[in-house]
Amino acid sequence: MNEFNNELIKELPDELKRKILEAARLIKSAKRVTAFSGAGISVESGIPPFRGENGLWNKMSPDFIEINHFLARPEESWVLIKEIFYDYFGKAKPNDAHIALAQLEKLNLLHSIITQNIDNLHTVAGSETVYEFHGNSRDLVCLKCNYSYPVSTVNFNNLPPLCKKCRGLLKPDFVFFGEPIPEPAGSNSFLDAKQSDLFLIVGTTGEIMPASVIPRQAKLNNAKIIEINIAPSAFTDSITDIFLQGKATVILKHLLDACQNQSLNP
After folding, report:
1. Each residue of 149-192: pLDDT tens digit?
2. Spatial distance between the Cα atoms of 129 and 153, rounded to a whole number of angstroms
3. Rounded Cα–Cα distance for residues 240 and 176 (Å)
């Protein structure tokens, strides 16, 4: 077995080492690699998942980001939106997993990232081609005139925030329950899935529609599927070719190291 440059790899089980090496070989030989990320990649940045045992929706109702509820009770919704998505989540920083994906892109080993997350951490980490399937929290959009504001320019002292141009209601530019997937992110995501010959799944359970269809679209087009998750997902036994079980920060650091190891060249 080829050795990794990183001495920390010795702490991993032999079978996981073998799988990481094989995944690295597949990435280096692929023509077009796409990554698909979910909430699990941002957990180590301090952002809890929305679903699952420790999910946010187990602690509170998501009604405040249901579009009809928001339109009927904007002030009530905005109190929670500000607290959760800006006062709390807004302090999060990219972790080693986000940074590793950005480095793979810089090495021309990753073409794009499709993310279900709205936390902007891929972009902050340095990734350039990021399709935000569920939108983002860094901008607010006016529901009346459609003007967009960077969140840093909006005063949250008076809620709900209103458009400076037309006094219309401002809404975070991410998908609320009851809203469609934004374009062109939606179309670009499915197009990349069809065009990729290797698809890297990171930190998602595969339960959210229609996002969960995207990796399956890649598989239908004969892409190899590499999955990184702390536990088996809806993809593991159905479409995954190599399952790398563990924290995204740990696995992606070792995977990046393996891809940089010249001894892995054919």
Report:
1. 999 999 999 999 999 999 999 999 999 999 999 999 999 999 99
2. 25
3. 30
- Residues contacting 70, CB < 8 A, separation 6+: 64, 77, 171, 176
Catalytic site includes residue 254 = no
> Phi/psi class of residue 102: alpha, beta or left (left: φ > 0; alpha: ψ in -120 to 50)?
alpha
**Strand 112-115 relative to strand 130-132, pairing:** parallel
**CA angle, 36 then 192 then 92, to 5°:** 30
Average pLDDT over residues 259-263: 73
Read off φ and ψ for residue 33, nearest 5 degrees. Answer: -110, 130
Q: Does domain 49-91+137-174 have CATH number 3.30.1600.10?
A: yes
The full set of domain ranges for the chain reads 1-47+92-134+181-266, 49-91+137-174
pTM of the model: 0.91
Among candidate residues 69, 98, 134, 254, the one labeled active-site is: 134
The answer to whether residues 122 and 37 touch, using CB atoms and an 8 Å cutoff, is yes
CATH tag, 1-47+92-134+181-266: 3.40.50.1220
**Contact of 120 with 138, CB cutoff 8 Å:** yes
Question: If you count them, how many residues does the chain have?
Answer: 266
Q: Show the tokens assigned to 133.
A: 């399937």
DSSP reduced 3-state for 179:
coil
Distance of CA 198 to the CA centre of its chain: 17
Q: Which two tokens mark 140? A: 């607010």
